[in-house]
Amino acid sequence: GNSVTQMEGPVTLSEEAFLTINCTYTATGYPSLFWYVQYPGEGLQLLLKATKADDKGSNKGFEATYRKETTSFHLEKGSVQVSDSAVYFCALSVYTGNQFYFGTGTSLTVIP
Amino acid sequence: DVKVTQSSRYLVKRTGEKVFLECVQDMDHENMFWYRQDPGLGLRLIYFSYDVKMKEKGDIPEGYSVSREKKERFSLILESASTNQTSMYLCASSFILGQTGANVLTFGAGSRLTVL
Questions:
Q1: Per-residue confidence at A49, pLDDT binned at 50, 70, 90?
Q2: What's the CA gap between B87 and B52, in Å, rounded?
């Protein structure tokens, strides 16, 4: 079946620290992979995506590489800011499907 | 930018009331979804619709129904609200990304429902 497992939170970092949030997946077929971000009181926003193996998605200083061999899509940022405090969701969709599979979310708090 | 608009950000209802949550998207997307978000449980799919008047049950459809009379509008209905339906409800629509065939979800801001 299809599923996403992501790192449990909460994560607390100091400003300018390096961030990694781990995400692994299982999928039938050829999934597309996504990171969504949810700021307090808001819906989810697409942060970045990758649609095939070895693709790197990037946005706002965040990056994630689609690794088929390790079935992973880890989110990284070199220097986090207070404004990055949010909940981050890893997700996948399967080609031709209308189904999306989400991880349970990782809460990030960045302190000054 | 695609916009998915949920008409009510915060609602407070009483047990047994009928509740309508409205969602409108402005980008002619075929697919629309209703999710429920609860702490520790992540997002759970209630219903989705792939065309006008078409609907499919998701993972937790019990206690809910949906309506899609127009392409841009997808409504979630709680026929008789109960306290265990207190939650954040997220509407989304999706489109196919270019030649990749990848489906990309765009979410509304959410509707936080409290049932007393």
A1: very high
A2: 26
- CA–CA separation, A10 vs B25, rounded Å? 33
What are phi and psi for residue A69, nearest 5 degrees? -65, -30
- pLDDT tens by residue, B21-76: 999 999 888 889 999 999 888 899 999 998 898 999 998 999 999 999 999 999 99
User: In 3D, which of A19, A14, A18 has the Cα closest to residue A111?
Assistant: A14
The distance of B106 to chain A (nearest Cα, Å) reads 7
State how far the Cα of B34 lies from the Cα of B110, in Å rounded to an integer.
Answer: 10
CB A39 within 8 A of CB A50: no
Radius of gyration of chain B (CA): 14
Asked if A42 reaches chain B (Cβ–Cβ under 8 Å), the answer is: yes
The answer to whether the Cα torsion of A44, A47, A51, A54 is positive or negative is negative
Q: Which residue type does A92 have?
A: L
pLDDT digits (tens, 9 = 90+) for B84-116: 999 999 999 987 766 666 678 899 999 999 999
Residue A85: DSSP 8-state: -
| Residue of A43, A95, A100 lying closest to B101 (CB–CB) | A95
- Using an 8 Å CB-CB cutoff, list chain A residues near B108: 43
